[in-house]
Amino acid sequence: MKHKLNCYISAPANFDLTRLESLLNSQKIEYHSFYDFSIGTTFSDLIRRKIRESDFVIAVLQSENSNVLFELGVAEGLKKPTFILVDKEYKVPFFLDTKFYYQTNFKDLSLIELALKNFVQDIGSRKKNILKKEEKDTLSVDETTNTLARISNLRKNPNEREIFSLIKDTFSRIDIQNVSISESTVDKGVDLIIRSKNLTPYFGNPIFVEVKTGNLNAQRILQAEQQLLKYLNHSEAKGAIILYLDRDNKRFENIKTIYNSILLFDLEDFINGIASDGFEKTLIDKRNKSVHGNF
Length: 295
Fold this sequence. Notes:
Elements: E1 6-10, H1 18-26, E2 30-33, H2 43-52, E3 56-61, H3 66-77, E4 82-87, E5 101-104, H4 110-133, H5 141-156, H6 160-173, E6 180-181, E7 192-194, H7 200-203, E8 207-214, H8 218-233, E9 239-246, E10 262-266, H9 267-277, H10 279-292
Parallel strand pairs: 1-2, 1-3, 3-4, 4-5, 8-9, 9-10
Antiparallel strand pairs: 6-7, 7-8
Helix pairs in contact: 5-6, 5-9, 9-10
């Protein structure tokens, strides 16, 4: 296996993880938990991020612990494999009836070690196939760093062809298919057209993308919105995105949008959003804020 597997450990705060961590070390599995403290994020966001970045979750149930139950729910929502250990003195919760779990006294881990080895081998053998089947929705650290460096240069010296190339590269990296760039002249078509079946309930399909660069002002952004609204009214599309890159690093977030499904993003902020939360969540959160205001 070229890359180490990593797991998220969900356990009560007073549970001694020493022996379990030793077992994971022996199998060369990286691990982390909520108690590996991170600054600058909420409890729920931290949990979701850590579980999303893990290959599987180990959950320890010794008592009715709300944190462990919440984290198991997050793992279920993110479709992460779970290796569940239940104390022999603890009544097995009804929701585990359809799951594999192991009851133990946490003193003799020999059987747990064997079960974990089999579990890990199965995860490792399936990982490549899973990655191929799943749609990639986020950017890696290296992809983000390289893309932001390109944006920094393009902000100072805007080049429309290079900006379109950067945006197309970004969409291809997150598996947004059917990207097309309008080759028509100005005001005769939108700049890009994308499709995402998972966003259909929010924005319909396709989604129009308009790109604005250079020395921008609110009037140019509003003109772009008005043009997009015209296209939306004459097509099956329900949503659109304006990606802008102002030479002076200005933002236009306070502009009152004409249509709640026309979203405004500075290109740098858009890339950071994808890297942090994923493409779909970035757009849905932005739309919800547009509809309901900041929350």
